[in-house]
């Protein structure tokens, strides 16, 4: 990477600056000043802003700065305002980087295991490396893309973590991990046609990552949340993580609890570990309906939630739990049910009109009805609110009306 003030070196073959060279201009004093000026710019005014800036700055630098400003604005959702506007990104980096809250949680797990030196393979722009370094872990961050490595190195410097993060541009399959306390692998799960669902089509393949993990005292492999459970190695612990109710990722841990299945819910950090319970029985809808967190569902731990609330399923294929009494749990949202009716649009329209429902949260699971289409047809008016659940009860299309139970 070029030092501050360096002039981009042209590509030897074409004479044009490379992507790494162009990125390096953002690290110059001029580039930093431009980024600071663009911190709060309105993308809708980008053409006018670009025209004005090009009077005083090279066109290529202006384009790079505008692109980086857009990426920083997008990155706020994952990294928070303070870090996002100090860091650097690539389009793929913003899309694929681990959310800061998830990376911080994983770093705590590693440090609780006594990890002090870790090899971060497929490090991307360095989101996980940053969290690990902030937790006191010395990180070797490896990626094969030169631009991505340049960005990761710049991020380590921007956040004052260069002493703990060594960025190496290399093929991860050729990097030795002997001597490290742990390995973290985040294979690429997107290709030219979008998401990759076959774990063996990851880059590198999941089988390679698993074999590498087994050579270290501890390891974690980030995988897609929808991974088939039969693809999970028997000697791995599988953890599904949600943040704010949204499932973010699944992780295979080695050197922890072989065969365990767990769901972790952030930001609270509560964890539910499976106990191997059989599927709960189907029963009539009771006074309360529980909607398990997505991580709980992905981890196949609905039975554990049902046991916790003394409930059963409303349908053998639907992940809704019901019970007659309220048992608050961090692993599911609870609703007090007022109506259990066969699905009938005319009846539903009459009910919401009669009750003055102007605000409705519409949920569906196992129903062909699209919530937004239904919302248009209901023409909601009034001062009251409710929750409408479109689902199946014992195989029959059903609508449940109720109210959320406040935690």
Task: Summarize the structure in words.
- The chain has 407 residues and is α/β, with parallel strands linked by helices.
- Helix content is 31%, strand content 26%.
- The protein is built from 13 helices and 18 strands.
- The protein has helices at residues 19-25, 29-37, 46-53, 59-84, 91-96, 100-112, 127-134, 146-158, 206-213, 294-298, 302-308, 345-354, 371-378, and strands spanning 117-121, 138-143, 165-169, 182-185, 190-191, 194-195, 218-223, 237-243, 246-254, 261-266, 270-273, 288-292, 312-313, 321-323, 332-342, 357-364, 384-393, 396-404.
- Strands 3-2-1-4-7-9-8-10-11 form a nine-stranded mixed sheet, sandwiched between helices. Strands 13-14-12-15-18-17-16 form a seven-stranded mixed sheet. A two-stranded antiparallel sheet has the order 5-6.
- Strand 17 (384-393) and strand 18 form a beta hairpin.
- The longest helix is centred in the first third of the chain and has 26 residues, at 59-84.
- It starts with 18 loop residues before the first helix and ends with a strand.
């Amino acid at each position: 990477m070029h030092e501050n003030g360096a002039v981009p070196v042209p590509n030897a073959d074409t004479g044009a600056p490379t992507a790494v060279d162009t990125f390096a201009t953002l690290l110059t004093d001029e580039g930093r000043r431009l980024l600071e000026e663009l911190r709060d710019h309105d993308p809708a005014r980008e053409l006018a802003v670009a025209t004005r800036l090009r009077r005083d700055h090279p066109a290529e630098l202006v384009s790079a700065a505008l692109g980086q400003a857009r990426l920083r604005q997008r990155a706020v959702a994952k990294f928070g305002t303070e870090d996002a506007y100090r860091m650097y990104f690539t389009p793929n980096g913003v899309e694929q980087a681990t959310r800061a809250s998830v990376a911080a949680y994983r770093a705590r797990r590693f440090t609780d295991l006594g990890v002090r030196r870790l090899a971060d393979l497929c490090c991307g722009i360095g989101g996980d490396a940053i969290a690990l370094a902030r937790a006191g872990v010395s990180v070797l961050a490896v990626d094969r893309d030169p631009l991505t490595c340049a960005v990761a190195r710049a991020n380590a410097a921007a956040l004052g973590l260069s002493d703990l993060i060594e960025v190496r541009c290399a093929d991860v399959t050729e990097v030795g991990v002997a001597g490290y306390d742990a390995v973290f692998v985040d294979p690429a799960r997107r290709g030219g046609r979008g998401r990759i669902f076959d774990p063996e089509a990851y880059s590198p393949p999941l089988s390679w990552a698993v074999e590498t993990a087994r050579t270290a005292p501890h390891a974690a492999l980030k995988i897609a949340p929808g991974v088939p459970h039969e693809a999970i190695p028997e000697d791995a612990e599988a953890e599904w993580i949600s943040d704010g109710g949204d499932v973010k990722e699944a992780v295979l841990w080695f050197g922890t609890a072989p065969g365990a299945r767990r769901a972790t819910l952030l930001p609270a950090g509560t964890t539910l570990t499976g106990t191997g319970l059989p599927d709960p029985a189907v029963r009539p809808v009771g006074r309360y309906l529980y909607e398990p967190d997505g991580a709980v569902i992905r981890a196949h731990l609905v039975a554990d939630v049902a046991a916790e609330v003394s409930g059963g399923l409303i349908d053998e294929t639907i992940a809704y739990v019901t019970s007659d009494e309220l048992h608050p749990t961090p692993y599911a949202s609870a609703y007090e049910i007022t109506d259990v009716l066969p699905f009938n649009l005319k009846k539903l329209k009459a009910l919401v009109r009669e009750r003055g429902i102007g605000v409705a949260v519409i949920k569906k699971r196992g129903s062909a009805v699209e919530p937004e289409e239904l919302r248009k047809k209901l023409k909601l008016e009034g001062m009251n609110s409710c929750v409408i659940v479109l689902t199946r009860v014992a195989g029959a299309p059903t609508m449940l009306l109720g109210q959320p139970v406040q935690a």
